Protein: YnfA family protein
Organism: Zhongshania borealis
Amino acid sequence: MPELKTTGLFIITALAEIIGCYLPYLWLREGKSILLLLPAALSLALFAWLLSLHPSAASAGRVYAAYGGVYIVMAILWLWAIEGIRPSTWDLIGSAVALFGMAIIMFAPRST
């Protein structure tokens, strides 16, 4: 079950990053309160901490590369759920490719 744990941790990490970036967007582009920067900063700090929780067997570069695939999927889901924009077929295909890439990077057998 390490695959489920890793993927779940990536999902939570992606949510922290997306929230940490979306809140300043609301302030800068939508005229919302500057006070949104405080939870944004906390969310980005949480994001960095969550990335550090991945198993030590995976190098930081490998974790960051694989995380990108999950981030893409979560960003497309955010687009749909929060922004109300339905993903296109190409969005879904691209997300599937990214997720497949994450699985190869994180779960492929390695000799060391």
